[in-house]
């Protein structure tokens, strides 16, 4: 059996080398097995035959049974068409063709019984059928038994080579003829029984040729379950492997730094969620195994303090700590926050970014090497080969979605024993995605905002309503608040975007010309020093309105800012909008986010804007984002190895994903080595997967 599935697809009847190479390049189908696992994208219900007089009830696709009474060529205004008059015992409908007249009139005869299948279209106030599929009634019934017909995804090229819907169906039918009805079971009996799954053989047959909707649903459920089960099993194995094999530094004690910070410096009480997360981290770092923890917390939930306290655990045990941020602005800001605290504790802290001067760099390298530098904050610059620590105990990576997997891996190699890793992300990741993409990490969630925060009020206005906006800004600024005005910057149209930014800046200056309102601007083309100066002036209140590109997107913390205006908001993605909005609402005052767009909004943009005005909940927003864009885009292009699912769906099958994960965990718990004979098929499937994908590198 498995031998036949390994056979190259060209040997299947009617395929041959030419079609085989097209099937491979267009659909990735190379072997019998690939075809077997090439599931239909949808099904056409051919069990129902409509009567012509009930067509008004029908939606798009219909099937009719009857006879042609006449074919007639008709000259229209622009082109000729061929009309066939098709009758059943209840009425008549026109069937229309725009080409192949000769072939049609020669092939189809009046008076013979046919089955037509096609899409209804409106023609004036008449419905007709354009270019339907036509079968002789007799043949058709023999062949298809009028059930659900599979439709496989196709491409132009395939159609050109004559590989139509029909032909694909025939390939699969032929495949089943050769393989026979039986396929090896790939899930343990116990799992099948517990979840009432149909057998592998039945699932494979019914997914391609379902006898009915019920059977189809069962086949789909079984195959989705299997897919998610093996996905989760791989992730869990990865986690087990890491925990078993990768030793971590042991931070024995909570010492002076941590305690003094907590008692003397921390300016507020930690939220319950912050405390819980710190306990989770504490447990990890003293366990003797390397921590690899993802910390999720919505914008403003207070991740920085958690990072600081984690780093202090390292320092208390004579290790160094590092904190990485994706942008210079953010790194600088973290540096200032952390330095303020460190100075009070007598901790030596430095900032390393792309623009750190060589002379300063030299000192940093030296102090890192001899261990006198205790905390290093910085950008990607930290990852460079020549940056060597004496004993890096913990690396905190902020805003992980900007970093790729490869960069995470680089951090590991800074020591022989890898440092503990804490990844912080403010982009809430839907649970399904977290479980797959970060399935091998432990996850902590800060699901509580510091007390006193008021949800940000979000409004949408059109750009001709700017006057209202200016009045509003005036009022807020008069009350002592500050505002951001953000413009999109999308690389492909960079020049234009900078123009927009400049124009927006000038427009604001003009609008507030005779008033005591200071307007500043930051963008990526400025020198880091200028950027920092402007940011500082905004921070200490000298600037009232900060016009900027998305350089301020992540992490900037100016609690007095209460208005976030987002220009051309339709051009931003949902998570970006949410991040931007997170820049306000950080103090106790009521804050506002105003989305400005033009009138031409795509449907998707409308959903994004509406979502923003309706909710502040980062997880809800992430779910919507996932629905709109799919998982690949959410994780960003830098994230290699995005998992593609064949049949299950990250959004729709969340529940099933959790069930499958539980089942996989249970299996590993009962049989960690997968050595039990009842689980031999699991070992076999995993072996096949690894043969294909290569044994993972456990850093991913
Ligand atoms: P983020 O999770 O977005 O990185 P920050 O760490 O920047 O959030 O924290 C946002 C703001 O909330 C900061 O001004 C911080 O000082 C403040 N903050 C953090 N934790 C608390 C708390 N427990 N109580 C009050 N304010 C807090
Ligand atoms: Mg932050």
Description:
- It is built from 25 helices and 21 strands.
- The protein has 700 residues and is α/β, with parallel strands linked by helices.
- Strands 11-12-10-13-14-9-15 form a seven-stranded parallel sheet, with helices on both faces. The protein has a six-stranded parallel sheet with strand order 16-21-20-17-19-18, with helices on both faces. A five-stranded mixed barrel has the order 2-3-4-6-5.
- Helix 10 packs across helix 24 (654-670) and helix 11 (256-265) runs antiparallel to helix 13.
- The longest helix has 33 residues, at 213-245.
- The protein starts with a helix and ends in a 7-residue tail after the last helix.
- 37% of the residues are buried.
- Residues 268-271, 274, 297, 299-305, 426, 450, 555, 557, 559, 586 line the site of adenosine-5'-diphosphate.
- Magnesium ion binds at residues 303-304, 398, 426, 555.
């Amino acid at each position: 059996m498995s031998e036949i599935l390994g056979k190259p697809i060209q040997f299947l009847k009617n395929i041959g080398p030419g079609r085989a190479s097209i099937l491979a390049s267009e659909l990735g189908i190379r072997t019998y097995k690939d075809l077997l696992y090439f599931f239909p994208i949808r099904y056409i219900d051919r069990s129902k035959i409509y009567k012509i007089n009930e067509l008004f009830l029908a939606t798009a696709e219909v099937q009719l049974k009857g006879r042609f009474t006449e074919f007639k060529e008709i000259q229209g205004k622009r082109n000729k068409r061929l009309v066939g008059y098709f009758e059943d015992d209840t009425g008549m409908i026109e069937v229309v063709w725009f080409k192949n007249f000769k072939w049609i009139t020669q092939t189809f005869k009046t008076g013979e019984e046919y089955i037509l299948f096609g899409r209804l279209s409106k023609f004036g106030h008449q419905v007709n059928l354009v270019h339907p599929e036509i079968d002789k009634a007799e043949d058709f019934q023999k062949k298809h038994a009028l059930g659900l017909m599979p439709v496989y995804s196709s491409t132009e090229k395939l159609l050109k080579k004559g590989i139509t819907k029909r032909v694909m169906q025939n390939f699969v039918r032929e495949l089943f003829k050769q393989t026979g009805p039986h396929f090896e079971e790939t899930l343990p009996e116990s799992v099948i029984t517990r979840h009432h799954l149909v057998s592998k053989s039945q699932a494979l047959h019914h997914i391609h040729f379902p006898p009915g909707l019920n059977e189809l649903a069962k086949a789909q459920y079984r195959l989705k379950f299997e897919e998610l089960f093996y996905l989760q099993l791989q992730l869990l194995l990865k986690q087990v492997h890491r925990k078993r094999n990768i030793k971590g530094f042991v931070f024995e004690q909570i010492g002076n730094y941590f305690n003094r910070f907590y008692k003397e410096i921390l300016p507020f009480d930690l939220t319950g969620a912050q405390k819980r997360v710190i306990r989770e981290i504490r447990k990890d770092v003293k366990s003797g195994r390397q921590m690899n923890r993802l910390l999720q917390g919505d914008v403003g939930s207070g991740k920085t303090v958690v990072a600081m306290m984690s780093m202090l655990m390292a320092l208390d045990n004579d290790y160094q700590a590092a904190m990485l941020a994706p942008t210079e602005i953010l790194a600088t800001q973290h540096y200032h926050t952390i330095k303020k605290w460190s100075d009070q504790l007598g901790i030596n802290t430095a900032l390393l970014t792309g623009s750190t001067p060589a002379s300063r760099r030299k000192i940093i390298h030296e102090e890192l090497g001899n261990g006198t530098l205790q905390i290093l904050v910085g950008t990607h610059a930290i990852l460079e080969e020549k940056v060597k620590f004496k004993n890096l105990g913990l690396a905190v990576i902020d805003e992980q979605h900007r970093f790729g997997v490869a960069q995470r891996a680089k951090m590991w190699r800074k020591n022989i024993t890898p440092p503990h890793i804490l990844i912080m992300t403010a982009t809430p990741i839907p649970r399904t995605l977290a479980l797959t993409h970060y399935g091998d990490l432990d996850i902590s969630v800060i699901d509580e905002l510091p007390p006193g925060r008021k949800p940000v009020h979000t409004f949408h206005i059109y750009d001709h309503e700017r006057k209202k906006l200016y009045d509003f800004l005036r009022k807020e600024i008069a009350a002592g608040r500050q505002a951001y005005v953000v413009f999109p910057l999308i690389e492909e149209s960079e020049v234009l975007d900078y123009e927009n930014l400049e124009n927006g800046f000038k427009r604001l200056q003009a609008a507030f010309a005779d008033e005591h309102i200071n307007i500043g601007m930051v963008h990526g083309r400025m020198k880091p020093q200028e950027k920092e100066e402007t940011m500082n002036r905004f921070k200490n209140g000298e600037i009232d309105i900060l016009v900027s590109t998305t350089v301020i997107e992540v992490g900037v913390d100016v609690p007095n800012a209460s208005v976030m205006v987002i220009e051309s908001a339709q051009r931003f993605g949902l998570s970006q909008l949410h991040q931007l909005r997170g820049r306000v609402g950080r103090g106790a005052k009521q804050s506002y986010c105003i989305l400005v767009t033009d009138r031409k909004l795509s449907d998707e943009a409308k959903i994004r804007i509406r979502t923003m005005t309706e909710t502040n909940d980062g997880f809800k927003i992430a779910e919507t984002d996932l629905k709109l864009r799919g998982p690949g885009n959410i994780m960003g292009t830098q994230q290699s190895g995005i998992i593609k699912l064949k049949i299950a769906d990250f959004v729709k099958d969340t529940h099933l994903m959790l069930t499958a994960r539980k089942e996989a965990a249970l299996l590993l718990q009962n049989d960690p080595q997968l050595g039990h004979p009842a689980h031999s098929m699991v070992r076999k499937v995993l072996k096949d997967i690894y043969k294909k994908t290569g044994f993972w590198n456990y850093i991913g």
